[in-house]
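As promised in the previous annual report, we have extended the structural survey to additional targets. Below is the entry for Acrosin.
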Amino acid sequence: TMILLCVLILLALCGPAHGACGDTCGLRPMGSTLGSTRVVGGSDVLPGTGAWAGIASVRCYWNPPVSIHVCGGTLISSQWLLTAAHCFINRTNDLSEWAIVLGATSLAETGPNVEVRRIKRLIMHEDYVPRLEFHDMALVELDMPVRCRSNIQTACLPAPSVKLSNMNNCYIAGWGAAGNSFLSLLTASGRDILQQAKVHYISNQLCNSSEWLSGHINDFNVCAGQGGVGTCQGDSGGPLVCEDKRIGAFWQIGVTSWGIGCARPKRPSVFGSTQYYYNWIWKMSGRKPVTPAIPAAPAPTYTAAPPVAVTEPAQPCPFPREKLKQFFIMLKDILQYLKGKLF
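The corresponding structure token record, generated without further manual editing, is:
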């Protein structure tokens, strides 16, 4: 009896053990970082904090082992990743060209805490409409299960019945480009260090108004962002999370889908609603929904930094000819401008 009592006390003191993912979510939904909660742009995610432990880098290869970041995604169980369907447009024939990297805040990070998996199966939503980005949702089955630890956790998806009344603390994260400027188009499409930013949640009614996105928002979308803050090319498939203070955890309410330009005023980022697709997600993955665990740590804080932005859906594997095409279009515009000034 005494031995059993000691074992129970030790288990209570130690708390939930890390191991196979999927039993609970939200153990450390955002981690903790130093700084102020007043965030007007994006900031680097500090390594080793466990922040954004569910996020993954979805990559493809030109010539292995050289890889390029294409999109983000979030782990929802030990063997399933949630991301955007448009990340895989015209690139579904050879899944061996793709890899999923978990547990890293830097794209160049390697080591025992970083897990790399291949894609066993890709499920794009059956009603997905390219260009319009309707039903822009996809599931990726990993070739091997992932083991949870402090820097690899599963995201919490809210059921349709969950009332998300307080949406004041919402955040985005990704390795996307810093903007849609001339320089960013000629350089790498993303940022090496994972970025995070606090964003304003915007109701669908306001987001769909004539001064905002003018009727382009549907029931399967949610909106968030503001001028100077948002997602950008390369952030597609990544998470939008909002704090639920009642349980002290974060719900992932959105999957980054599309935007008009990058973080423009009244042009917020548009996400696929995880509540809308909740039943589809768990049906397609053949898994039971996981429940959030109430974290013991206080709510996280964030450090202000330069803005992270949003553009139209990122193209998978931006081949050099696409960058050259963009370069010559911009060069033509510049020459026409100079011609007008000189003559």
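The first helix runs from residue 2 to 14. The first strand starts at residue 24 and ends at 25. These points will be discussed at the next consortium meeting with the crystallography subgroup.
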